[in-house]
Amino acid sequence: MKTLKTNLPNIITLLNLFSGIIALFFVFKHQWDLVFLFVILGILLDFIDGLLARSLGVSGEMGLQLDSLADMVTSGLVPSLVLFFLIEKSLKIDVLDNFTLNFQYLLPFAGILVALGSAWRLAKFNIDERQTTSFIGLPTPANALMILSIPFLIDSKMEMAKIFQNPYFLVFFSFISAFLLNMEVALFSLKFKDFSWKNNWNKYLLLVFSLILLLIFGKSALFFIIVFYIILSILTKNRTIEITH
Question: What angle, rounded to 10 degrees, do the helices at 61-71 and 112-127 form?
Fold first, then answer.
């Protein structure tokens, strides 16, 4: 019984990894709704495993390392491959079937920068003792959701969404994404210590803004929600840090 209690959070972490692996299969089939579904499920399980470990008092080094490995797949590798295929589609080429060493066929590999940036962030987190009440840099799940919203943005036919069909912008965005993950900027946490407006106005503002955009634009709104979250964090100049990825 004790072994089950100790390993229950780790089992949930493995389910996060399982969800990420399933999402990977659907990435290759360009089934973005299913990719989104399994990544959301993985992120939810990632939240539950930490909550359960703390409530059971079984947090440990094993869970920390396993959690980072699972996040690397669900929130690192999956969005990286999504960008790879989006760049490939925008160029109207098939890299995997007809690869040649020319400039255009190398461009989609810029998406790998997201995986590299995620790995760096997750490894840095494991040895970073500063993060106690907010984030430093964009959390990998938030970055993943921002990227996974791009296919839905493109399908929305919004005028501004056309920029996401430009392969050079997507390559540039791959660099930006890796930077956001590891920037030395504090971003506020959504964790509530109390529910007062004075201490949580930025969180309430983000939640209301997010709800409105989600109701209007659906999954494609996630891109703008994450951007708004980053800007709001910078404007509020929150410099405290939370233990999370």
Answer: 170
